[in-house]
Amino acid sequence: MTKLQSVLVVGGCGFLGHHIVDHLLARNDGTKVSVMSRSNKQHRRSGVQYLEGSLLDEKSIQSVFDAAMPHVVINTVAPITFPLKGSPESHYKINVEGTSNLLRAATACESTAAFVYTSSAHILIATDYIIAKESDPVDESPDGRRYPTSTKAVADKITRDSSNDLPIDAGGLRTATIRPCATFGEDDSQLLPTMLSQLEQNRQNYQIGPNTAFYDFVYVGNVAEAHIKAAEALVREASIEAEKGKQVSGESFFITNDDPRHFYDFMKAVWQANGYDISKMNPTIVPTSIALTLGSASDFAAWAFTLGNKSSAYLSKEDVEHLCLNRTHDVSKARGLLGYVPIVTVDEGIRRAVKSLC
C-alpha cells in the first residue's frame, strides 16, 4: 500500500466523492483527507478538512490548495445527468473549464504529484458496443445531444495530456482518468431512486425492446477503490520510473463490475430488493425502433419510456439507448495496471444500496 500523504477530494460531499473519502479514512494510515466543495453540508466525516471553493474561480481554488497542500487531487465533480440538468454551456464550464483550472493549480503546487479525474465509460462515439476498449474513439463534440458525456471526454483528454515526468517541484504532475459505467450504491441520488420511483408510480410494466442487450453497472465502492489505486500508482511513478508499457500516467481506465446484465433484469433485481414480487410482472413491450423514433415527442413517451418522473421536455434519445443497446467494457487494463478487482458484487451492491435508500 502506497502512502498518499494528503488527498484533496474535489466534490467530496457528493455521491462518489464521499465514498472515496470513506475508503481513504478506512485505510487508517495517517493520510490527511481534505474536501473541496461549493457546499460542505452533506456526508461530512470527522477528521476531514472541509474547504469551500468553486471550480470556476481560480482564486478560490488557490486558497483551497494553500490550505490543503495536497499530494494527490481527485476531481469527482460533474453536473447531474440523470435526470439531465443544465445546458451544454454549464456542462462545458464545469467539466472542461473547471477541470482545467484544477489542473493548473495542481501543476503549480509544489506538493502535488498526482491528479485523478472521474470521467465516464459513456464518452465513446459508438452507442451500441460490446467489450469496448479505452483506445476506442470518443465523442468530443460538446454541442451535440450527448454533451453531458462529450464534455467529459474533452476533460478526459485535457487531464491525460497534462501528464508529464518532470520533478514535482518543477511542475511535474502525473495524471490518469477513471471511466466508470453506470454507478450505484449507498446514498445514490440518481440511478436507483429513479428506478424505485417506477414502483411508486406503478410504471414497472412498460419495457422498451426485448431486453436482450447487455449493459455494464458498477458498485460505487469499487469505483472509489479504483480511484485510490490509480492515485497510488501515479505517486509511485512520481518517485520511481515505471516499466515501459506499464505506466499509468497519461492513461484512462474503464471501471465496471465486470458482470454485464440485461438492463431490465438489473431493474427487476432492484425492485425485488425493495420487496416487490417480480413474478407478478407482465410488461407491455414497446419495440426499440418505435421508442427511438418517439424520443421526447409526446407526454405518452415521457410517461412510458423514462426510468423516472421526467417531463417530456427532458426525455432524450440517449435515455432510450441506455435501455436497449449493448454497452459493455473491457476492464483488463485496470486489472493489469491498477490491480483493480471489483470486490463487491452487483447483487450485494444492490442490497446495500436499496437498504440505504428505503
UniProtKB/TrEMBL annotation:
Pfam families per UniProt: 3Beta_HSD
- Chain ranges of the 3-beta hydroxysteroid dehydrogenase/isomerase domain: 8-280
Q: Write down the SUPFAM superfamilies for this protein, in alphabetical order.
A: NAD(P)-binding Rossmann-fold domains
Q: Does the keyword Oxidoreductase apply?
A: yes
Can you provide one Gene Ontology molecular function annotated for this UniProt record?
A: oxidoreductase activity, acting on the CH-OH group of donors, NAD or NADP as acceptor
Q: Which Gene3D superfamilies match?
A: NAD(P)-binding Rossmann-like Domain (3.40.50.720)
Going by the UniProt record, its keywords in alphabetical order are:
Oxidoreductase
Give the InterPro entries listed for this entry: 3Beta_OHSteriod_DH/Estase (IPR002225), Lipid_A_modif_metabolic_enz (IPR050177), NAD(P)-bd_dom_sf (IPR036291)
Record-given protein name? 3-beta hydroxysteroid dehydrogenase/isomerase domain-containing protein
Family (UniProt): Belongs to the 3-beta-HSD family.
Source superkingdom? Eukaryota
GO terms under biological process = steroid biosynthetic process
